[in-house]
């Protein structure tokens, strides 16, 4: 539910939202710093400096860790697309080993399967695409199993193995795209450290009496860009950074129906 809520927010809104929150927490800390200054605490700013540096360093570390996690998952999704294209292509070629009546049916189902996968790459009607994919698994298994029972030899065994690999790859892609995400606990930790760092930085600025917006605003925008980039990488199909489907598109083009 939380993941779906985050992904329903446009990526541009996330950028401006993160920027606004960082500036808000910085302003909140600034007000605390101004009050501390009026109390005449001369040691306050000295003790706060190392704390600001430490929190900013911790924020950079957690942000880098989150980015690495999202980036590795994005790379895995790209590898899964290429692997699925290779497996479907192998199954399509091995279908020639079946009898004519089975071969035609299996190849047509594989063409429909690839068309569904390519069409679903933009994230629209994803649930429908998953249901159709599962249905094709059932439909394609019927002629393959019948061919194996009618003629149990090496050729049909190769086709059965290829179709099994295609079906297994479906679950692998679903897991990589929809289930392997940055955990919510990591997002909470990143948000908490971000807020604490901005508040502490604002307190330090408030105690010096100089807002230095020309430095604070670029800092907030820079961190907001990085956070937005991580969020975008964590989205499999609804973000600006999408997994390329060229290998599947090339496969679809090469699977043109045979003409006689």
How many distinct domains?
A: 1
- Number of alpha- plus pi-helical segments: 9
User: How many β strands by DSSP?
Assistant: 0
Query: Measured on Cα atoms, how large is the radius of gyration?
Result: 27 Å
The percent of residues in helical segments reads over 70%
Most strands sheet: none
Estimated structural class: mainly alpha
Q: Which term fits the overall shape? A: rod-shaped
SSE string: HHHHHHHHH
Distance between the termini: 52 Å
As a percent range, the share of strand residues is under 5%
Instruction: List unreliable stretches of 5+ residues.
Output: none
On the 0 to 100 scale, the average pLDDT is 83
What does this structure look like?
- The protein is mainly alpha-helical and 260 residues long.
- The protein has one domain.
- Helices cover 81% and strands 0% of the residues.
- Helix 4 runs antiparallel to helix 5, helix 4 runs antiparallel to helix 9 and helix 5 packs antiparallel against helix 6.
- The longest helix has 51 residues.
- It is rod-shaped, with a radius of gyration of 27 Å.
- The relative contact order is 0.20.
């Amino acid at each position: 539910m939380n993941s779906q809520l985050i992904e329903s927010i446009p990526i541009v809104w996330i950028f401006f939202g993160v920027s606004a929150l960082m500036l808000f927490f910085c302003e909140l800390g600034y007000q605390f710093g101004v009050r501390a200054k009026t109390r005449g605490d001369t040691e306050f700013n000295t003790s706060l400096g190392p704390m600001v540096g430490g929190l900013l360093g911790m924020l950079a570390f957690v942000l880098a860790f989150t980015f690495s996690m999202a980036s590795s998952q994005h790379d895995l999704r790209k590898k899964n697309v290429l692997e699925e294209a290779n497996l479907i292509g192998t199954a399509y070629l091995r279908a020639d080993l079946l009898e004519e009546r089975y071969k035609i049916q299996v190849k047509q189902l594989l063409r429909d399967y690839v068309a569904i996968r390519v069409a679903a790459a933009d994230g629209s009607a994803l649930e429908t695409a998953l249901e159709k994919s599962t249905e094709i698994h059932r439909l394609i298994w019927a002629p393959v199993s019948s061919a194996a029972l009618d003629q149990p030899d090496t050729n049909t065994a190769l086709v059965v193995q290829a179709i099994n690999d295609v079906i297994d790859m479906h679950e692998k892609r679903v897991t990589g795209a929809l289930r392997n995400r940055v955990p919510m606990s990591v997002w909470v930790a990143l948000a908490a450290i971000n807020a604490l760092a901005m508040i502490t930085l604002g307190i330090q600025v408030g105690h010096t009496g100089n807002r230095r917006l020309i430095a604070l605003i670029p800092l907030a925008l820079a961190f907001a860009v990085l956070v937005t980039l991580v969020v975008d990488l964590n989205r499999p199909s609804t973000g600006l950074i999408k997994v390329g489907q060229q290998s599947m598109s090339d496969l679809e083009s090469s699977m043109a129906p045979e003409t006689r």
